[in-house]
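Worked Example 4.2. Read the sequence first, then its structure tokens.
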Amino acid sequence: MVVPVYTVRMSIMLEHVKRNTHQKQAVQDALQAFRGQHPTADQIYECVKSKMPYISRATVYRVLNQVAQEGGIQRVQIPSSADRYDNRLGPHYHMRCNQCGRIFDIDMPILEDIYGHLPPSAQYTVTGHDIVFKGLCSACESD
């Protein structure tokens, strides 16, 4: 029996999608395991690798980028530091501890009128904003 080439290709494509879905689930499970700690991609990779030793770092990075682009997780860009990942999707701000480097969610109202403070002569289109407060967390402050 001869199997048409397109059937073989389709089967290979479906196998890739299935494998990627399994990998995506493993990455999302690892992110959940951090419970709001805003891990780096490397921390997520190490967590996934402990359960899936064959997974590559590049795969974890690709999955994180894909899920962030799809809106399934939030990428938190921290100046002079590795990007962090957050399961909390609604608009909110973050605080970075200057001593331990941990990232925390800040529960405060979102500044809805912040765009109203932009100069009317601005030669750009604003698509969003990130605010990261800096300071000391309570654990570091008590040291």
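Now turn to a second chain, presented in exactly the same format:
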Amino acid sequence: MSLFPTRTIRILFAFAVCAILLTAFSACREMPPSPHEPSEIVAEIGGLPVALGELQMFVNEVRPAVKEHFEKTYGEADPNSKWHTQFGDETPAGYALTLALEKLRPYKVLQSWCKKEGVAEDFSYKTFVEQWKAENADRRGKKQAGEVIYGPESYTERVYYDYLQDKYESDLRKKVKPEPTDAQLQKIYDEHPDLFYRFGQVTMQCVVLPQSDFTRAQADALYMGFESALKGGADAEKAAEQAKVSAYFRTQVFTADDMSTPLVQGYPEVEDAVQTLEPGQSRTIDDNGVQWLFFYCSGREGNGRMSMEECKPELAQMFSQEYFDQTLAQKEQAAQVKLYDNAVTMIS
């Protein structure tokens, strides 16, 4: 004879089944939704696909601009908490996508050009993440081994994206080398009359007053006496005698080689005086931190603008740079942006 009546067994069985089903249902409800696949394509720019993870990087970057826009326009201080709420005819998510795609456009256009020129082929987000992780792993290994690491110890995803982009651009500039005509080089030469001057040599008379021995006011007074004597017709040496600074007077000849030395390049005011003073002109320089300097230019030799023929290598480089920049700008302007319907619901 059974310990439980048949009806009781059926009731207990039914409760057990319900309990199992309720437990399973509750478990399903408590499971978080599956995350979107970062490599899923959500847009295209200039025919090149844009992955969710790639676009999300730029969405994260424009969040401050989104907050500022919705705060100023709608008085909403926290648009991130109302990502898909309609404000007027826009949502924070939609506005963020618009800004992010505009920031991403130059990147994808350059990548598309690289692909066309054969500089690089794979611009998928998956490959990018693999490269990024491999780079950081390599840097960690070098650090542990005590090797020298140039740059950061590890890259953030966004910074590494820029790092690769800079490399792509550098490689592309080396590959894209148009051959300019003489007429094109002449045009650049004529458009930059301030360039391509030959520096021969410049003779400068200098008065060098140690700041440890002379105050600014004393130096100014002495310079006024020096300049007054020059205007009175005295040469630089006589002007120094009349201003009672002969002991600090010297003549210095500057050649093209001197212009690249620390003595000149370390003091921009000195370099400018040597480059620009014409014979008969003087100038005082009082802020090199060590000395008060008076400069008087007494002569220039071998100076003048180089001919177009002499400048051809530099002009060709300028042409190449201008061609690259203009072509890239045109490609960016012409690039079509296509946003997939699911993108706005997938970004966070």
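Notes for the reader: The radius of gyration is 36 Å. The CA atoms of residues 46 and 334 lie 8 Å apart.
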